[in-house]
Design brief:
- It comes from Syphacia muris.
- Among the domains are: 132 residues, no CATH class; 109 residues, no CATH class.
- The protein contains no helices and 30 strands.
- By secondary structure, the chain is mostly beta strands.
Length: 351
Amino acid sequence: MLLTVGKSAVIGSTVLILFVCIANAFTTSSYIFRKAWVRNYVKFQYTFRNGTVHSIGEIKPIGCVPTNTNDGMMIKIGDTYNETDFQYVCAESEDGIVSYEATACIDPKGEVMKIGDSIIMREGTILLSCQLNGGVIKKIVQQCQLLIAVSGCLHNDTLYGESETWTEPLKVTMRKQSSLMTAVLMQCFRPHYSYFESQIAGCVAGDVEIPLHSYDCVNGQYVHCVELSGGGIDLLEINDTDLSCVLDEKVFAHNQTWFDEERSVVLMCLYREIVKIECRVNNETVAIGQMVDIDNGCTFVCHPQSNVYMCDKKLGNFTIVEKVESVEEASDQPRYTNIRVKNTNYVKSNL
């Protein structure tokens, strides 16, 4: 770079110009830029090296993150990490692919169980084994009597039957989740006749259990239990405007109740679902499930979904506008589908 500075002065009729030239050559210094992110439990790092001659950029895996979050704790490639039920390893294949996968089970005492290992617990009544089924490691619980009757899910030395639930406290690595969420709701289910498995069933906030994908109100704050894209769950705070319902192009607020004259029903918007409260015939209340005779010779049934009119005699002139499917064809579908509402026990006590 060339910098020129000029000065001038008048001496008599002669102009004196003084130039000062400063030459300074700047050379670009080298630097290194790094950026990291987590995807599918593997942490990647992008490194850019800018040199005086040429620049180089590369992306490579540097470890695994059990929480699958960018700010979660990282374990090095080759290291293992013990969770409640399984031991995971951050493994690298011969072609350089890094993965985070379960390689062993963890027994109720926190000890590692290799694939094929089994232990007898509960005074010889329960057999817990670590097995590989379909490429997936599973903890199998069986009764020791003939070793054929599978009885449920084992957690903290307690056996839970099918559909039974329990709570598990949040792990230390999950503490960055919502402050309202205090535990995870677990449930025992039976994916195959030969064994049971535990699965995440919802969020827990104090004494309140919120099923997965459901809404509730905790300490005056509306919340939504959601499943995170990278795994795990969280309890998100939402506004009451997020819980409104839409019917016939009309918007109804959460907890709002209204009478639908066309359908002769009282409806309520409850956590984004339209709930049928009761029916009304000529200003008389009919409870859901109740049958009443009306003055035209028909019987009116307040059905949880669409109201039903049963008549022995023909009511005026009418034509068939749509053929109803046979019982076999429509066995999985409701016969009356005027309005899709949720079957509920929200029935007033005076009905």
